[in-house]
């Protein structure tokens, strides 16, 4: 029965899906491939940027991470939370225990008054997580033109090409009136394109208009504790490096664990290859030296069975 | 059951003799994957993937059980509990990356295993039952993987759950109530997350049970082989141990090298960035795509865009499920008495130049956004997919003239030597 029903079902599905194809092809033929949008034509892929933690041998640049933390603290943390990072984690950036305690105490975190039981603010301790800037999402949206600033803990993993995206975004604000790609001006190709009040034009953002005001506006905006000159580019690089660490604090440990694992496996695999060769030696056909091998269908080469017998006697499998 | 020349288990140590009398578990293992199981001597590396799939299943179960000790299946904290595993649990990042990439490698291995079966027609008598159970395992694995992907409760988890359970709403009359019943609500929420977690923990053990049935069914006719010619004499076989344990050991090494390269150096390459954003029912991701191993079937689902008598969505759902269900009928659709694609000139052409490119196109389109030209490409590929299995395969098997087969496995390996064929010139493997 299946031999009759099968082809009927097969032809049925094929007919329906080809009908859909014809309809789709007709639509394309009459209406084209769909309208071009400013978002599609003028969106830019993130710029290339290099970090010490890149690549399979990458390690953290602790000085850069500390600078990045400073940029986060003095700039980003005004609007963006960092709820997955605790002050104790900062010890991994190279801060001493006393420095971590002092750093935690420099933040005000929500607490409970031990005398009255009422909510209050108290200095942070190493076990506290970084406090969020707004009480809730409604407050966050109200203060930011209806857009909730995303938590930054995982931002570099939550965006394609994360660190490069963050770096490009914070340095990528442009004037839409003069913006052009390869000689094509945005205003000429899409005269209707507008950036509404309260939004900012940024070609690295998927829909080109972002609710975040340019966060890094001037060289020297942050005074680095280590004396590095804080150009906008430097601050963007540092904060994106720091956000790579917050997204995956175990990244360098992961890569460093990987090498011994791969090394061991490579060694074990080579051993397994030789073990396999030795185990199979007695039953593998041996090529004849006099060149009398003939070809079979399927390409298997003809070999001397006699030689196989000898090999089998010489190498009992027990040895393997 | 086994071949008459299969070696018998002979316990030597007193403890093993005692055990063999009371509970012959060592004998069972000896006959299943030890020296007591004679296997064709000509298996190529394509035959490694059954063992690799079993290994991948064990990796998933072991890492999964430990992850379950640290995970919380509650919509309020699930996302944070996964990050707790990544940050605060000792080696938690390694467990989670091993589990997430383990799913991908499990599917990679299963797909190679299935397409090995398709090329060498391993589904044909007397091995139909092995194939049927295998398709059941594949369906169970897909369900398990889908529910596992929901557990981190990221954006793709949430919207994936919504889209896939939404498929059931395409069923006439009972669809909508069925979807609500499956989710335990109108949209994915705590009830859905909890039941997915429960099932995600249960199903791997169901898979394990069906894998045991799969191997049991395999041991009745014995393994197939690249010539498709059945085992005739002792010289056609070698004992599974040490021959195939050694060969599988090498295969396992190569598999682990690739797998750990992903786990330690590009653990997120096969995932989706959106799943590091916590689930948000109010914000739909720009492109909702499942994990890569579902892409071919997702492409078939989306290929049906035209309401022909039935709504397009229902056609898509029917076609997607039929695309896998059709595999159940292969033993009866393919009538050729010859198994191996090596000896089937026409079948071979349709396999390499029809089915494989079609799967590649479906795979590519399934991961792409639902725009032209991807939709049109996937429509052509979907049509070919169904025609291949349901029309071309029965036709080819009826009209094709197969090439000459070797007389025996021994002849295929050692050459056309009459004495070898009679078993006189070869020593059975010891």
Keywords:
heterodimer; A: 320 residues; mainly alpha; Cytochrome Bc1 Complex, Chain D, domain 2; 2 domains; two-stranded antiparallel sheet; disordered C terminus; B: 430 residues; Cytochrome Bc1 Complex, Chain C; 2 strands; globular
**Termini gap of chain A:** 53 Å
Helix fraction bin of chain B: 55-70%
Helix/strand order of chain B, N-terminal first: HHEHHHHHHHEHHHHHHHH
Instruction: Kindly report the CATH topology of chain B.
Output: Cytochrome Bc1 Complex, Chain C
Number of helices of chain A: 11
Mean pLDDT of chain A: 87
Portion in helices of chain A: 40-55%
Question: What profile does the largest beta sheet of chain A have?
Answer: 2 strands, antiparallel
Query: How do the SSEs of chain A run, as a string of H and E?
Result: HHHHEEHHHEEHEEHHH
CATH superfamily of chain B: Cytochrome Bc1 Complex, Chain C
Distance separating the two termini of chain B: 20 Å
Please tell me about this protein's structure:
The complex is a heterodimer of chains A (320) and B (430). Chain A contains 11 helices and 6 strands. Chain A has helices at residues 2-31, 38-42, 62-74, 97-105, 137-143, 155-158, 162-171, 186-189, 232-247, 251-280, 305-314, and strands at residues 108-112, 119-123, 180-181, 184-185, 200-201, 209-210. In chain A, a hairpin with a 6-residue loop joins strand 1 (108-112) and strand 2. In chain A, 29% of the residues are buried. The model of chain A is unreliable at 293-320 (pLDDT under 50). With 430 residues, chain B is mostly helical. Chain B has one domain: Up-down Bundle (Cytochrome Bc1 Complex, Chain C). Chain B has helices at residues 14-22, 25-33, 49-68, 78-87, 92-119, 128-150, 155-166, 175-183, 190-219, 240-265, 295-303, 312-325, 330-333, 345-367, 374-399, 409-414, 418-421; strands at residues 38-40, 237-239. In chain B, helix 3 (49-68) packs antiparallel against helix 5, helix 4 crosses helix 5 (92-119) and helix 6 packs across helix 7 (155-166). Chains A and B meet through helix 1, helix 10 and helix 11 of A and helix 4, helix 5, helix 10, helix 12 and helix 15 of B.
